[in-house]
Amino acid sequence: MSNYLTIDVGGTNIKYALMNENGEISEKGEVPTPYNGLETFIDALKTIYDSFKEKNVEALAMSAPGKIDAMQGYFYTSGALGYINGVNLRDRLKDVIPVPFAVENDAKAAAAAEIWKGSMRGVHNGTVIVLGTGIGGAIIIDGKVYRGSTFAAGEYSGIPTNLMEAEYDPNNMWARVNGVGVMSDAYADVLGVPHEEMNGRILFADANNGKQEALDTIDKYCGTLASGIVSLQFVLDVERVAIGGGISKQPLLMESLKKQLHAYYDRAGSFMPATIPEVVTCEFGNDANMIGALYHYLYEVKEA
Q1: Tell me, what's the pLDDT at 165?
Q2: What phi-psi label fits residue 92: left (phi over 0), alpha (psi between -120 and 50 degrees) or beta?
């Protein structure tokens, strides 16, 4: 069975795993993400590859943040790793790492994993919403990840939440309303404690113990999240929405979101032309991006 090296570039760490063609992991690890330039980043990738080159690695499949031409390996943007902006990473690596290379946007890779083996199997049209510091997104049309005409489809973080404002205001981006830190900050404000003393673990521990202030905070967060999903549904009309990110594993969050979504539709009544989508939890966690990167290589790049 063939071996593939998969890499997920994050803001803190570069995760890596050795997988077979079925996406099964035999080894994995992580190293800190370098911030001192492209050459250091390439050196880090080469070091990871060199540690596996005796394992007959057939290809390197990567996920990374940014606006990426996934068929060419070109980074228009790269999130916090600005040194990759305007770089064709596939070209830069071909003389350094002697195997085929492919790269996909991280949220789109997560969606590809769900299409391949997770919550989006058999789904014709859907969307994946990954809740983190921002809001990662991916759109699925006809069972495939839709990238858009300039590879920017699904960049949900920047969606304006106030259409009455004529000028762009970063404080009104969807990420500033439903980034996961917003919820813990709101709970800190309710309790009157500093934001740095609060986190999601404390919030959900209190909620699971029935503390009403914590339950109310989750409901308020899910109310705005439901509103955002309705807005997407007016445009996309999908059959299923999969929620990802570590917070999606909290049953109370998913229960509240479904409750708030149904309440939104109930209030709208006959004025709501958009159908209510099925809302599920993504099946893959921390390995989703690497699994999706392998799917991208095997079924989109290799077969192109």
Answers
A1: 80
A2: alpha
Q: Which residues of 261-294 are buried (b: 16+ CB within 10 A; e: fewer)?
A: beebeeeeeeeeebebbebbbbebeebbbbbbbb
CA 233, CA 230: separation in Å to the nearest integer?
5
Identify the pLDDT of residue 304.
64
Output the DSSP codes for 79-120.
TT-GGGTTEEHHHHHTTTS-S-EEEEEHHHHHHHHHHHHSTT
Rounded mean pLDDT of the chain?
A: 94
The answer to whether 110 and 130 have CB atoms below 8 angstroms apart is: yes
- Give the three-state DSSP class for 184: helix
Is there a contact between 128 and 242 (Cβ–Cβ < 8 Å)? yes
Q: Which helix (H) or strand (E) holds 9?
A: strand 3-9
Residues of the chain with pLDDT under 70: 304
